[in-house]
């Protein structure tokens, strides 16, 4: 099955987002797991530790493939409108934050969307809603 069809099976992901994501990822086999794909994209957060204390308010890493980051965030923003699971996740994240609700909620949804993209591409499956 074509990787392109795998991504286009997700409601809200059209030919532009699917093509852009595939062009920037290349071969999905390059990544050991979804965490490595997220790190390559820049959808991970810096670790701030001091002894046993771990900070909860950490900034997003600004390294990685900026074009892939753009495609994943925009595609996740589109998926929010079509998939109830992602809409509920987005709303939950937006309700938990006091500042920059939109930015953080969309970024967290894009991180969740990255897991979906990795799974669909590595297993060559079509998206099936729950």
UniProtKB/TrEMBL annotation:
A GO BP annotation: DNA transposition
One Pfam family, short name: Transposase_20
InterPro entries: Transpos_IS110, Transposase_20
Domain annotation Transposase IS116/IS110/IS902 C-terminal: ranges: 5-91
GO molecular function terms listed in the Swiss-Prot or TrEMBL record: DNA binding; transposase activity
Protein name: Transposase
Biological source species: Ligilactobacillus equi DPC 6820
Lineage of the species this protein comes from: Bacteria, Bacillati, Bacillota, Bacilli, Lactobacillales
């Amino acid at each position: 099955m074509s990787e392109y069809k795998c991504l286009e099976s997700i409601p809200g992901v059209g030919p532009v987002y699917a093509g852009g994501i595939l062009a920037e990822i290349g071969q999905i086999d390059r990544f050991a797991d979804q965490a490595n794909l997220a790190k390559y994209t820049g959808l991970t957060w810096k670790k701030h530790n001091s002894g046993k204390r771990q900070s909860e308010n950490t900034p997003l890493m600004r390294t990685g493939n900026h074009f892939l980051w753009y495609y994943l965030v925009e595609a996740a923003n589109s998926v929010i409108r079509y998939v109830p699971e992602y809409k509920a996740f987005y709303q939950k994240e937006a309700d938990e934050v006091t500042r920059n609700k939109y930015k953080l909620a969309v970024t967290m949804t894009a991180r969740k969307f990255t897991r979906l993209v990795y799974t669909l591409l590595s297993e060559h499956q079509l998206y099936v809603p729950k």
